[in-house]
Amino acid sequence: DNAVAESFFKTLKTEMIYHNKFKNQQEAKTAIFEYIEIWYNRRRLHSSLNYRTPYQIELEFYNNLKIAA
User: Cα(54)–Cα(42) distance, rounded to whole angstroms?
Assistant: First the structure.
């Protein structure tokens, strides 16, 4: 289904691309990569995670492992 991809690209464009002017294609590629890998995938709140970040979910998971051990 394209709905997920369309939603992602809309977010990418509105949060990052439209607010920046890139000097060249390489600068744009680097900025987009950093946005996806550093911000979107790790620190951005995700509705599917009950508006928590993937990092928060990971910390919670490992804390629960320590408690169970």
Answer: 5
* Threshold 0.70, pTM exceeds: no
Q: Report whether 31 contacts 16 (CB < 8 A).
A: yes
User: CA–CA separation, 27 vs 29, rounded Å?
Assistant: 5
Q: Could you list the mean pLDDT of each consecutive 10-residue stretch along the chain, which spans 69 residues?
A: 84 92 97 91 86 92 89
Helix (H) or strand (E) holding 41, with range, is: none
Q: What is the DSSP string of 56-69?
A: HHHHHHHHHHHHH-
Pairwise CA distance, residues 63 & 1, whole Å: 35
For residue 53, give every residue at least 6 positions away whose Cβ sits within 8 Å of its Cβ, in sequence order, or none. 42, 43, 44, 45, 46
